[in-house]
Amino acid sequence: MDQIENRQIKSLQSEGQQPHQKRISDLVDIKTLQEILDAFTTTTGLMANIVDGEGVSIFPRKGIKKCCKFCRIIYSLEGGKNRCQAAYKRAGKQAALFAEPYIFRCPSGLIEWAAPIILNGEHVGTIICGQVLMWEPEEFFWIELRKMNQSLTNDFEELFEAVGELAVVTGNQVQASAYLLYVVANYIMKAGWENYEQSREFAKQRTLYHAEIESRKSLEKHRESTVAFSLIDEDEIIVQLQNNRKKSKVFLEGLISGLRYEAHQNLVVMRAKMTELLVMLSRVVNQMGLDMPVFMEINNHAISQIYQTDSIENISVITSKAVDAYLEHMAATAVKPKNPNIKLLIDFIESNYQHNLTVEEISDAACLSPGYAGRIFKEQLGLSLMDYVLKVRIEKSKKLLLNPHYQIQSIAETVGYIDAGYFTKVFRKFEGITPTQFRKYHKR
Questions:
Q1: Which of 130, 165, 341, 343 is placed for a possible disulfide with 112 were both Cys, Cβ 3.0 to 4.6 Å?
Q2: Per-residue DSSP letter, 134
Q3: Concatenated DSSP letters for 345-402?
Q4: Is 325 within 8 Å of 296 (Cβ atoms)?
Q5: Does the structure show a pLDDT above 80 at 88?
Q6: pTM here?
């Protein structure tokens, strides 16, 4: 591998690295974002910029030339730039808090709006748009403008002149332009993050594969016989899957790399070996008494992808993701309540979640005291009875949100909330986004 590839692997394989710890420039093409903002400015006449979590522009310094004259003047004054960046940082946090565009007044007295860029629930940057006026300047505006900027300068003639070049826009125009940038930028960032994750997975598989090569070379020096054998051992897989998820994952990832080595870069053999592994896994989970339809669906999807690609490396990634899906569903299936009273409580909640339930009502369904019912439920499932009610409501609402014909108010009422606003608040607490955003992201 060349030096560039080595650097990429080291960068991409840093464990525990979260999206907000990466620069936006690491995830997407800055030039593409700049072109989008330029097109937006050409179409609307409004200036737009993208800043990181600290309020600092992600574009080169020369990009400041594209700012309006008013901002260029403020930036040139001592302390002006830092004041603006601090304002952008605060506005970005507010926008991220509500997961929607946030209209604010900048420290210099003009109207701007911030649209958050969010990846996997993390705020990685903010689109700042403006600066504009929402009304024709009157006497009080000039007095206030002078007062808000007197810490930066005593010469206001040039600033006042620059205000005359600013656009006057309506509230509807502000909201529409803010939402447009929010949707476009977040769509591009999401695509960029998915590409980054794919590259990260490629790098991991490549490293595992090279480690396996060295391991196999060492073993071959001590092997007395060259009789062909397969690494796939059904009994060993069963034993390994009894371990915790992390250990099972390590074993299966090593198995994938070993099988790739056995394939000797032969695409046909690689496909056959990965298919054999997935079929073997399905037999193992069947022996373990787990629900087969879920795992068969994983296999069908993965095997279909394996035979549609001509990249051996990509086949490794597809198989690795299928293994992740296996382990995830196995873990979910393993969490089953052992106490029969828990099932009674769950069945009652599932049948009555849309009603205004109380702990007493739920407990009575299993003929238990509220204190005892709450304690055993928390011990078994890790949730209080009322938190489980909320969880069921949210899961039911997510299914309804996939149907665009249902209004948010109607869905809220269906799952037990009279107030759609309160439903939105609870939904955001559980999912990290609003019902409307969930519907957009999962549009059919």
A1: 130
A2: S
A3: HHHHHHHHTTS---HHHHHHHTT--HHHHHHHHHHHHSS-HHHHHHHHHHHHHHHHHT
A4: no
A5: yes
A6: 0.41
